[in-house]
Amino acid sequence: MSKNIGFILIAASFTALSVVGGKAEPEPPPIVVRAVTVRPASTVEATYLTGEVRARVQSDLSFRVNGRIVERHVDVGDRVRAGDLLARLDAEEQKADINVARANLESAEAQLKLADLAFERQRNLSKTSVTTQAAIDQAQEDLATSRENVAAATAQLDNARQLFGYTELTADADGIITARNAEVGQIAKAAQPIFTLARNGQRDGVFDVQEALYLRYPPADRLALSLISDPTREITGTVREISPTIDGLTGTIKVKVNMGEEQNWPLGAPIVGAFESPQRSTIEVPWSALTVVGDAPAVWTVDPGTQTVSLRKITIGKHRTSSVEVADGISVGDAVIVEGGKFLSPGRAVLVKPE
Predict the structure, then answer these.
(1) What is the per-residue pLDDT for 70?
(2) Which of 350, 322, 321 is nearest to 336 (CA)?
(3) pLDDT at 158
(4) Most exposed residue of 19, 151, 265, 329, measured as fewest CB within 10 angstroms of its CB?
(5) Distance CA 163, CA 190 (A)
(6) pLDDT at 21 (0 to 100)
């Protein structure tokens, strides 16, 4: 009996000690953290592409007749004015044609004089009834034929002189020679491009934009342009033309940006254009706010009423240099912990530092 009483006393003592021990354990102090309030942000993304400076109007200059090039007066990069002689063909054939046409005209004019004299003689004879009406009609017909021959010979001479003029290739406007496709001694065919002339005036920045980039971020109306060789030289251009078709070889879309009359930027110079996406509202949090739940990204949020934390899974939209864009999981106004989250557990009380 005394042994049972001893066990009861020992059990009661342990019970009392456990109760006293339970009352003696204090609540853990709140963990000091720093949090930020989620606010909407306006995001504009820029993609930088390279292009080149081109003249708004470029023309291929060519001879209108066949021939061998005997003179070339300009080269790539030369500035020319309208009417300047650029090249000349061997014109011996055209000169011979002019001589033949001139001789034909002189012969036709001589025939016209004879026909005119014959007609006048027949008309005078008719007054004295010495000639016949048939002879008068024939003289009149010969005169008309001679006049037509003179007109045809004159046209032939004009055409020969025109063809002779085609042996000289001249600039059709003020500008810069950007390409040369022939050399002295070469046989040039009619309409074969010999020079390319970039006309003075409006300039374009021309870019080949990848189809995927264009569909994702169509270019804004205005773009910032700068020279690769001198980034400090920057202007703002206006998109004036977007090709309606996709290049079958490169898969790109040609975009032309109006640069105005920017004569100080050399033709063909490489440039950089900032293609910006339309402005949109996003939610972003610093990298330091991220943690994981299993394989999913998450953040710690603070309940403003109880000052306790909970773990929320999020969906990341885009990664940036110092932050991430959150597509889903948190909302504007949530308090997200960015410092002190390493030792947290769900429901743990925290003390938030002022922002």
Answers:
(1) 96
(2) 350
(3) 95
(4) 19
(5) 12
(6) 46
Q: Give the pLDDT of residue 25.
A: 59
What is the number of other CB atoms lying within 10 angstroms of the CB of residue 222?
Answer: 14
Joined together, the tokens standing for residue 64 give 């209108």
Architecture of domain 31-43+281-353: Beta Barrel (2.40)
Architecture of the CATH domain 48-55+201-276: Beta Barrel (2.40)
Q: Which CATH class is domain 91-162?
A: mainly alpha
Q: What share of the chain is helix, strand, coil (3-state, %, to 5)?
A: 30, 40, 30
Instruction: Report residue 219 as tokens.
Output: 């270019």
Residue ranges covered by each domain of the chain: 31-43+281-353, 48-55+201-276, 58-89+167-198, 91-162
Taken as a whole, the chain contains a residue count of: 355
Structure-token pair, residue 168 = 């000289």
User: Residue 58: its pLDDT value, please?
Assistant: 92
Hey, which CATH number is domain 58-89+167-198, 2.40.50.100, 3.30.70.60, 2.40.40.10, 3.20.20.20?
A: 2.40.50.100
Q: What is the pLDDT of residue 102?
A: 95
User: In the chain, which residues have pLDDT < 50?
Assistant: 1-22, 24
Which residues have CB under 8 Å from 170's CB, separation 6+? 83, 84, 85, 86
Sequence-separated (6 or more) residues with CB below 8 Å from residue 12: none
Q: State the pLDDT at residue 41.
A: 85
All residues at 6 or more sequence positions from 16 whose CB lies less than 8 Å from its CB, including other chains: none
265 is written with which tokens? Answer: 């930027």
